Amino acid sequence: MKRGLRTAGVVGAAFLAGTVLGPVVLPPVVSAIAQESGSRAETYRLLNLFGDVFERVRAEYVEPVNDRDVIESAINGMLQGLDPHSSYMNARSFRDMQVQTRGEFGGLGIEVSQEGGYVKVISPIDDTPAAKAGVKPGDLITHLNGESVQGLSLQEAVERMRGERGSAIKLTIRRPGAETPIELSLVRDVIRPQVARFRMEGNDVAYVRLSSFNEQTDLALRNAISTMRKQAGNNLKGVILDLRNNPGGLLDQAVQVSDDFLEQGEIVSTRARRADDAQRWNAKPGDITDGLRVVVLVNGGSASASEIVAGALQDHRRAVVLGTKSFGKGSVQTVMPIPGNGAIRLTTARYYTPSGRSIQALGISPDIEVLATREEANAPLRDREADLRKALRNDNGTHESAPVPPVNLPAGVQDKVSRLPPEGAPAFDPTKPETDFQLQQAVTLLRAWSAAEPQRRAAR
């Protein structure tokens, strides 16, 4: 998740455990100075090491090298060695990212990470070349136009997947459960994802799917809810907010979307390396649904900003979360521009739900588990944040957090929801909502909930 493209100063500190020889006791200030001095000397020694290696590469490598390419690769290696989400962006990549957060960019339309040297698909974006070609969450992209992605940084691989509209690219994919690699030919396009797709389910349930969190998301959600409330009149029983396979995006948009359903209370907080850098966001009065019942759909592709929204609404018991466990990305990345040289994306904080829990490497557990297919019950668990190399640990044990409030549904309502599709259920077809088992169970829940509490009004 990117935090609002804020410019932030890079503050670095290195600490060396001081060793005192003999029975000497130093005053605290002197001790601190000695440690800082020793740390600085070690840092300079290591920088000299880097300079020596750089000169050896320039002088001795089998072919001439480009100094900028070598330095940028070294910077990217340093950042990617920290965690899966920190990275360096050169000037072109930084411009592309700024365009993407505005809601329009060129390429294939997939959110990716890196695993084992390959490009791993977190989620394809709706109605993009990748989604139309059948790219699925969890796919490993091993080759681009027949060339291995091994040895490429994530940013380099992403740049190779981007290109002019109408140009073609061939992906070689290794998919869990498939015996042989899958070859897909895609044509690049200008990606203008419709971040909010909405429709009425019957004449009484409003359905809105958010595909990402860019600068357009909150406005698109408000428009969707307003339009469907006018369509339904007084018949509306509830709202389904579909965050499945939504890979996240801007923190401020996650806060605004959460605030759209809340009247008060904390939405999310962040804790950084230094205690005085902690931040907290609270809801303002005003619920765009006027207290309608809400069901939030999540799955293993719901990450980052999606998890902030699901966690906030779950902790406040403003919504019932239905589906399967989310991805578990509970960290915040700050984009720090470097004048004339692109920017770095650096993990600067963990975020916490209103109850004080971190979902880092854990994810949001649904209130009601509903699987998309019967096969999912016996399939290996889909890879999540905890499976990524160098993923940050969860620190729930280092501070107090309140338990998630229990689901408070009327008696018998939850019994109307089935965990598994029936035998012989039709395969999921995105063009046929009736084949979306998780969605249909959410509709069933809302209608049963409304029937059990016909006079319910929200006191918010």
UniProtKB/TrEMBL annotation:
InterPro entries: ClpP/crotonase-like_dom_sf, CtpA/B_N, PDZ, PDZ_6, PDZ_sf, Peptidase_S41A, Tail-specific_protease. It holds the Pfam family CtpB_N-like. PROSITE patterns: PDZ. It comes from the Bacteria. Keywords: Hydrolase, Protease, Serine protease. Residues 94-162 form the PDZ domain. CDD domains: cpPDZ_CPP-like, Peptidase_S41_CPP. Gene3D superfamilies: 2-enoyl-CoA Hydratase, Chain A, domain 1 (3.90.226.10), 2.30.42.10, 3.30.750.44. Belongs to the peptidase S41A family. NCBIfam families: prc (TIGR00225). This is S41 family peptidase.
